Hints:
Layout lengths: L1 H15 L1 H20 L12 H14 L1 H17 L3 H5 L5 H20 L1 H12 L11 H30 L3 H19 L9 H5 L4 H8 L4 H6 L6 H24 L6 H9 L26 H21 L1 H17 L16 H12 L1 H16 L1 H5 L2 H5 L5 H33 L7 H29 L2 H17 L30 H24 L9 H11 L7 H29 L10 H10 L9 E12 L4 E11 L6 E7 L5 E7 L3 E7 L4 E10 L4 E11 L26 E2 L9 H6 L24
Amino acid sequence: MxxxxxxxxxxxxxxxxxxxxxxxxxxxxMAIWMFLATADEPASAHINAPERLTGxxxxxxxxxxxxSAAIFGDTAVRDVAVEMDAxxxxxxxxKAEYLVGRFLAALTVNAIVLVAIPLGLxxxxxxxxxxxxxxxxxLVSYLQAFALFSLPNLVVVGAILYTTGMLARQIVPxxxxxxxxxxxxxxxxNYPGAIASPLLAPLADPSGLGALQNLTRYWxxxxxxxxxxxxxxxxxxxxxxxxxxxxxxLGLLARVYRFAxxxxxxxxxxxxxxxxxAIDGGGAGPVAVPLAVGSFGSRTTVGQTLAVAxxxxxxxxxxxxxxxxxxxxxxxxxxxxxxxxxxxxxTNTWPVTAVVAETALTSRVAPLLFLLxxxxxxxxxxxxxxxxxxxxADASPLPESAALLGRFLALVVLLVLFQGxxxxxxxxxxxxxxxxxxxxALYLxxxxxNLAGYLLVxxxxxxxxxxxxxxxxxxxxxxxxxxxxxxxxxxxxxxxxLRYGMDPGWTYxxxxxxxxxxxxxxxxxxxxxxxxxxLLIIATALWVRGREPGVGHRLRVAxxxxxxxxxxxxxxxxxxxxxxxxxxxxxxFIFYNTNVLNTYRSSGEIGRPQAEYEKRYGxxxxxxxxxxxxxxxxxxxxPERLAVDLRGTFHLVNRSAxxxxxxxxxxxxxxxxxxxxxDRAATPVxxxxxxxxxxxxxxxxxxxxxxxxxxxxxxxxxxxxxxxRLPTNVVSNGTYFNRRWLPFIGSLxxxxxxxxxxxxxxxxxxxxxxxxxxxxxxxxxAAR
Length: 784
């Protein structure tokens, strides 16, 4: 039977491809990471409870849609891409045999790949044996998630992606639909109450996770730990509904698909064919060939770079899907940002430009822009090879730098267009809500900041595609490269110097504009821009021309391209040298600010000052101390210098029933203690600057009812910038700080955790801590 032959051929072809098993490894590792990263559950909840395993399986499967897009998309368009479709359509193979055989083969291969998810969860469970909340191992808990959710979801997603690829006969629409499905699923999970009907809400979620949440909403903790999902009616109806959708999509494919060459393609080929002029062979003789003088200077290289960029943009813009992408950027920005005025301060507000720009145009639309960068970076790098023109194009006298930079410039223009379309959506949010103060200057500033971040990702994406030299694997590696810096703190990597493209972030307010946040953002952008320059040099050296036999040959060619004095090697080496120098200088300047002028704490050190404070001085929690009866203060604020001086005198009274032989004072370590003095004889016996604890021994005890005066002179100065959000206690407009900046009398440990608990929680943020760095014990909330 020919259907079986199609199935066996397609199955064997995919199982022989290394990319298939790389997909398995990626999903396996992603399942392990997702399980361990979300293992911080309440003490009564098992981290391997059946319900939790199912939820993690579904989430990993959602990101696995990109793998499905690669598998089903390649299966659907490969014959067209290699121009075997015309030959295939003339064979005795029937349309149904062709469509069904290929779909079943892609479905089987993708199902094999998805087996990596339960295997990864099993491995993660074994790795999590140190957790106190690991329940007993039950194989059926992993199998039910695979059978009830992963496989049904694969059928639905596979049907949609396969149909898209078959009808469009291009890979770009497949990825666009996968991106839409992924974003739609994530949005649906974030708004579970969008559908009020309790009957329709569980059925409307194609992933089935909504039905699962509706089912387990009222399960007690003990039941969640032990009860299997089973086959509840709500979940079964959800599966039936979406199986029906998949069947309808495949039925549409069977009805609409033409098992023949597309007429539009034939017409394009006809229009593009020019009849060759007749040759008169009677007057054959020598032909004079004019001598052409080549010009390969920098001016020519610039012209070639711009020509490559223009050609790439024309190819992208000529696609009917490009308009769809622009409309999607506008529509999704409008959709995701529609309620931006309802999520601020828990009340309805006008969608002012600052809120729309920071929320809708930046944080909410960022995943869409990242996915478009991933998609179009691969399309631009593989443009000629996908069209079968690479060997002709690579034979032209075009420098590798012009070929790469031209494509990068095209991607820059595309990003500007995508952001422009999103900007239209942001303005529509305001206009449709009746708010017309658009503030174009602020919009342009935010678009410029966002564009800088997207360009860093674009350089990384193009470099990965060049280095990996496999289109679909390149897409996946770029996804992982974008995700990892954002989850790196979970692996103990917190410093932005080690997380590509990351920075402390910015905040805009009408009172202070961008405030103090812009300077560190710019310095980090410049630092990562130098890294992006170095990445593009690496991509230029490894740029593929013609048929290269293997990795060894590519490395030899790259070495030749970087050899001084050979071709453009000198320019590449000089540019790489500039990049390295900038990395060292900018990185050193940032390190000086974050680690020398300010205190930086690694993941293992966060919370340690609080723990040390409690272990060292928790024993003084019950020690009698005088109380403040009166305070005379002089506070000088210097907003332009970002400084505060606090001087004063505390009049202390012993209101306890026993005599006091020492005075304990605690000062925020972020403050500089210029001087302390008591109005009676006392000896300083302890000055622990690390946690700000000081003790004076009184030569004459303070009897009950007696008093003394403590005079102090302390100051606060901001030094450079930190690895986290800058403190906004002192700004040009809106300075605010509180009692925490004055000395405290006593150990402040009356409500301390026990020493054992403090030692066990070193990895937790200290009490009252605002930012990730420079967090003293007992510090209050920062001011705005």
